[in-house]
# Entry
Amino acid sequence: MKSGIIAIAALVASAVPALVSSSAPAQTYPGRPIRLIVPFPPGGGTDATARVLTQALADGPGWQVVVENRPGATGRIGTALAAKAAPDGYTLLLGTAGPNAILPAAYSKLPYDAVKDFAPVSLIDSAAYALVVHPSLPVRHVKDLIALARSKPGQITFASAGNLSVGHMAAEFFKQFAKVDMTHVAYKGGGPAVIATMSGETAVYFGGPSVVHQAKAGKLRAIATTGARRSKIFPDLPAIAETLPGYEIAQWVGALAPAATPRDILSSVHATIVKALGTAKVEQQFAAMGSERIVSSPEEFAAHIRSEIAKWRKVLKGSRVPLQ
# Structure
């Protein structure tokens, strides 16, 4: 009996170091600056979200997070880099609808697996797109655009920031819902696409919230937004869903880590991000960008990614989008 008690005590004692070592990373993390990979160039919407996040983490918990822009191949390059990074909590990725949902829906082979290679941490913000047209186009409502496009099949052109960009897919989704045919014109980035629509080179554009400012200046006409309901940022604009129930597109941004990152570190990152973003200052910063703060649990974010991939796979199946 005595020997049994001694054996149990020895077993418990041997487990103590393991327990201590497993909790140590969370207690000392982060011990150095964290790298935040943004798979797009500086100055864009995802980069702006990264700057708000890193400043909030610096102001609140005092975390040092360094933004590393790794653009290229519609987000593939930076996303693949993050997937292959050491799973130690010192590399995070800002994932978006493009490389983390649309591309996985479009291609069976990518340099990363959008589901298996990442551990979702939290959604950060979400922005409905705006449907804008050139002022010369005789449309002021979604119903007007549908009627015009049906009367001129294939003659109405729409610009995008590139093949399989969120704006491109928003238009393809619109075409399917409205049962219309419009012609896609792809540009190398959102800037050229906006300029093309303002000049009349193209007639329609689904763009980020910033295009509403061009509309307010009279260079474009904003007729709707792409959210499930009216945007809190632009409440005067109707949602496309008011005319086409079920239509919903948003550019979302969320934080992810390499898949094998320890759970205690993931929990620490999640709790810290949620707390850092929960201030009025951050909410105002996102509102100024035309987006809404939207934090989530890791499980909710994982489910969101899977549902987005499934949605875009269905849209692509019903479209004639060239996969290059």
Residues 33-126+250-317 form a domain with the D-Maltodextrin-Binding Protein; domain 2 fold (CATH 3.40.190.150). The first helix runs from residue 2 to 28. The first strand starts at residue 34 and ends at 38. The chain has two domains: 33-126+250-317, 130-242.
